[in-house]
Amino acid sequence: MKEIYSFAVTRKKEKIVPSISVGGDGKSVETTTKTVEEITHRVVFAKPSMSMIEEAEFFYGQKFNEFINSGFLTKAMLSKKMGDLGGLSSKITMESLQKSILDNLESSRVIEFYGGSGTLSDEQKQKLEGAKQMYTSTKTQVIEYEQAIRSQFSQTADVKAEQRLIEWLVFHLSFFEEDVDSKKEMFPLFEGDTYEEKRAQYLELCESLEDITNAALFKPKAIFDEAFQTLVRVASIWYNKIAEKQDDIKAALADMFSLEQETAPEPSKASPPPTEAEPKENVSESLPEPAVEPEVSLNPPVSPDGENK
Q: Which of 14, 87, 236, 282 is deepest in the core (most CB within 10 A)?
């Protein structure tokens, strides 16, 4: 199996430890204590084969047409409509955005030029300080525009089809590593042969641990809670061709999502996932707090055949 990105997650598991103590009457007394064991897994987002890429593209086309037939506009249609009404795609807005981008580039050059100098005149210090303020304000303007555009287009056929495609990629390319008989083996995070079967398990894993009745899901549930958000982000970065290798993706994750945390307001812990009206109907980056896996007797899952099952 070829890998695009891998990272480590830790799950917690309850472990019952038997012990024998001697009572006051000299008799042995058997007792048990509960401890929490931390187990580390390597989670992998695998590289798809060409046949899987073709299958994913066909899946995207199907979903895109389904959403259009359901009445959703495309990005192009909505952009044209909003532009005519003077919205974010209007000529005035685009000219303002272009000015902000140019000012941002110019201020970054000034900061780079004067920032490394140890001796600056008062005039140069003023230029440097003004450039820093310009850089911050223009960067904020560009980010706010991007967030507004993302929000405006969030209910278009293009975006909804892409959300389903990211789901497809995560469901089919997510694996976790586990020791089996002193050997490391890879297992799919989402069991099933089809998108529908894998998505059905995804919906089960979204439930709280106390609501899951299938004991075989306790282990993948613990890994899912820790890994799913990162897997969605990695799939999005790879799909949009922002980065394709381990180090590049790691840098992109740090850059993109640390910046998002700096500019976005603090979300409410009780708020529903922002991507869809139905919390468990689409890929979400809002996940419950990881639960402790109770001790159960589980048979290990069957190892996937081939490079990319």
A: 236
Task: Give the C-alpha separation, 232 to 222, whole Å.
Answer: 17
| Phi–psi pair at 292, nearest 5 degrees | -85, 130
Q: How far apart are CA 257 and CA 211, in angstroms?
A: 31
Kindly state whether residue 161 falls inside one of the protein's structural domains.
Answer: no
In a domain, 287, yes or no: no
Helix (H) or strand (E) holding 275: none
pTM: 0.64
Q: Are residues 148 and 178 in the same domain?
A: no
Give tens-digit pLDDT for 201-226: 999 999 988 888 888 888 899 999 99
User: Same domain, yes or no, for 26 and 90?
Assistant: no
The contacts found for 92-97 with CB under 8 angstroms, 24 or more apart, are 93/145, 97/141, 97/142, 97/145
Kindly report, residue by residue over 68-91, the tens digit of the pLDDT.
Answer: 999 999 988 887 776 655 555 556
Strand stretches in the chain, DSSP E: 3-22, 28-46, 174-180, 183-188
Residues 180 and 130 in one domain: no
Please give the C-alpha separations between residue 69 and each of 99, 155, 277, 283, in angstroms, as whole numbers. 39, 14, 20, 22
